[in-house]
Each structure stands twice: as structure tokens, then as C-alpha cells.
Amino acid sequence: MSESSGLTRMQLPHQGMRSLICAIVLLDFLAAGILIPLIPPLVRQFNPQAFAVGLTFTAFAIGQFFLSPLLGVLSDRYGRKPILLASTLGGMLSCFILDVANSLDFLLVSRFLDGLTGGTLLAGQAYMADITAPEQRARNFGWIGAAVGLGFIFGPALGGALSQINSRFPIFVAALLYLMTSILILHVLPESLPASRRRTNPVRWGDLNPFTQLLQALQRRSLQLFLLVVFLLNFAENGLRSNLQVLTAERFGLSIVDNAILFSYLGLLTVLIQGWAIRPLTERVSERVLTIAGLGSMAMGYSGIALASSVGLLYGALSFNAIGFGLASPTLLSRLSKEFQHENRASSSVQIRRSLV
Predict the structure, then answer these.
(1) CATH superfamily of the domain spanning 10-191+209-356
(2) Nearest to 198, CA basis, from 81, 351, 353
(3) How would you classify residue 174: left for phi > 0, otherwise alpha for psi between -120 and 50, otherwise beta?
(4) Which of 117, 186, 204, 342 has the smallest count of CB within 10 Å of its CB?
């Protein structure tokens, strides 16, 4: 892909590049957010068991786990733009498969493909690291998190509203958003990784094996406990996300629209924390303290979710969880990014974290 084509000839200042990559992440997660309230009802058309719903989220995670190393290597060798473009086009293709799905198998294929090509956040965070000084990464990763949160504010709400027109119409809208994002990446976004900083050494099998990369990272004593924390945090959070709609439907009888409102509320909290609060907090408090506070808040949230006997209590517990994740996630990623900054491979830290997600 030529970096001199279209508007990429423009030399945007870093502030403009930061705004543009956040906009791209926002559009991508807006499309993903539209699908959130639709997946469980679609799955239950073919299999009413809660296990089947969890299986669709597992299919996405498996695809993401095994392809994250390859996306990271390709991102370091060829730049961030090709990975961003492939990810959004893959999301669009997965929407088409989801739209024509007439069995659980097709749904699983759609989610697996979405996971395989789900590199927008990985490449977006690496892009942000490329153009950001190490001491500013926590706050700028917070802006990426805020873009994700905005997608999860408006995406589920839009998906819930559009589903009242037709149960599969939101899928078409999500595919259209992926297409728009692809055009923006192709014709407007400048490349953040110059040729002089790209990886030139040969690609080895170990570079593509997620287990090998994790084992290599675990050989660093400074990272062992840290990576365990990242794994446990994301294991718990993904378990919650994949089963939350099952819990709300069975315990409280929430509808697609009710769940859309709930996810939009959680997205709003994410934006407030990562887009507004994280910057002044990192100027006054160490990243370590923010991480510990975030993990503590998440623990309180999980306990509250388990004990919640009303929708109001559930909202309160989920608030603690969302605030905690909003504090812990960008500070953990900033720490991991700093560990790899001397290797000049911003995507290394991101892909290791994504493999643990």
C-alpha cells in the first residue's frame, strides 16, 4: 500500500494523528457495539443454552489469541495502516456472514473471523505509542479507551433501536460503518511507523506462536507477577462480558433494548474515566496506585454483581467494575509499553497484552 497516496501526503501534527486514530477506533467499536445486544438472541434462535452464547464469545477470543502475534509482527514490519485496514475489512466480512447465518455453526464462523481480524485496537494502541512520549502514554491510551467506550455508549443503543425495525438490520449498519472506517484508513490516515523504525530481521516461527511470546515475556522477572495480574483481570472481565446478557435476561428479565441501555451506561463510565479522569489522575498519582485502586474497585464490583437482587443494585455493582477497569487497563498497558520501549517495537507490548485478554 502506498503511503503517498491520497491525503496521506499531508504531514499531520501528532495531535491531529491522535485525534484521527481515536476516531477510527471509535467507528470500529461503534460497529462492534451495535452487535452486542444482538448476538445472544441470535444464538438462542439456534441453541437456547447459555453455553452456546458463551461459545460464540470463546470463538472470537480464540481467533484473536492465535492471530495477535502475526498481526503484531506484520504491524512492526509493514506499518500500522495495513493492519488497521485488514481488521476493518475483516469486520465487514464477518457481518455479512452473520447476516446470512442460518445455524449456530455459521455464527461461530462469523465470530471466529471477527476475532482473527480484530486488530484495530492492537494496531491503534501501537499507533498511539508510536507518536507519544513514554511519560504521556497512560493518558493517551486512556483516550483510546475513551474511544472504545464511546463506541460502547452509542453502539448498543443504536443496535437496540435498529433491532425494533428488523432483527438483522443493525448488522447491515455495522457493516456499513466498517466500510466507512476502511475508507478513512486508506485515504486519510498517515502511517505512524516510518520505514527506518520497522522490523527488518527475518520472521521466525516463535514470533508467530502466542505461547512462545508469552513464555519469553515470562522470562523477565520484572514481568512475571505483572502478566499474571493482566491475565486474571482480563479472564474475569471477559467472563463477565460474555455472560452478562444471559444473567440479566434470566435473573431480571431484561430485553434487548434494556441490555442496550445497560451497555451504553457502562460505555459512558468508560469514557468519563479514560477520556476525562485518567489524565489529571496520572499527573497527581502514580500509575501503580491507580492500578491497585482500579483492581480493588473491580473486586467490589464483581462481588456486588454476584449478590445483586435488583436492577438498581446491578447497575451499582457494574459501576464499580467499569470504573475499576477504566483505571487499571490504561495504566497496565502503559507499564507494559515502557518495558518494551527500548526494543522500538510498540506493538510487542500490545500484542502480548492482547494474547492475555
Answers:
(1) MFS general substrate transporter like domains (1.20.1250.20)
(2) 81
(3) alpha
(4) 342
321 class by beta-carbon count within 10 Å (0-12 exposed, 13-18 middle, 19+ buried): buried
pLDDT at 341 over 80: no
> Is residue 130 within a helix (H) or strand (E), and if so which, with residue range?
helix 120-130
User: Which residue in this structure is represented by grid cell 500509575?
Assistant: 287
Please return the burial class of 119, using the count of CB atoms within 10 Å of its CB with bins 0-12, 13-18 and 19+: buried
Going by C-alpha positions, the residue among 281, 326, 353 that lies closest to residue 129 is: 353
Does the pLDDT at position 18 exceed 80? yes
Query: If you write DSSP's letter for every residue of 138-184 in order, what string do you get?
Result: HHHHHHHHHHHHHHHHHHHHHHHHHTTT-TTHHHHHHHHHHHHHHHH
- At 183-224, the pLDDT tens digits run 999 999 999 888 888 877 776 766 667 677 667 666 777 677
- Burial letters for 126-157: b for 16+ Cβ neighbours within 10 Å, e otherwise? bbbbbbbeeeebbbbbbbbbbbbbbbbbbbbb
Cα→Cα distances 289→281, 295, 299, Å = 10, 10, 15
CA distance 300 to 318: 9
Are 182 and 87 spatial neighbours (Cβ–Cβ below 8 Å)? no
Instruction: Report angle CA 125, 112, 204 to the nearest 5 degrees.
Output: 60
pLDDT tops 60 at residue 99: yes
Please choose, from the candidates 276, 275, 322, 280, the residue with its C-alpha nearest in 3D space to the C-alpha of residue 301: 322
Grid coordinates standing for 176? Answer: 456499513
User: What pLDDT score does 135 carry?
Assistant: 73
Q: Could you tell me the three cell numbers for 318?
A: 457494574
pLDDT above 60 (res 351): no
pLDDT digits (tens, 9 = 90+) for 124-140: 988 998 888 877 777 78
Give residue 5's pLDDT band: very low, low, confident or very high (50, 70, 90): very low
End-to-end CA distance of the chain: 30
